[in-house]
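BUG: 3D viewer hangs when loading the predicted structure for this chain

Environment: internal workstation, default settings.
Expected: structure renders.
Actual: progress bar stalls at 90%.

Input used:
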Amino acid sequence: EIAKTDFKLTKLLGQGAFGIVVKAKIRESKKEVAIKRIECDFNDLHKIKYLMREITILRQLSAMDNSVYSP
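Structure tokens produced before the viewer hung:
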């Protein structure tokens, strides 16, 4: 499990339909990362499908030496 203490949040990068994206630094390695916090109404099937497409795209981007974490 990733704890809030593992990261130092440094900047709000943006926000959209499903939440916010922040720039953060991993405390242990000092590597800069972007973290997307997802807030979604999981009772709306249309929104869930859209969110799943977005997660799929983010996972594909993770192959480009980035990481996508989902619990």
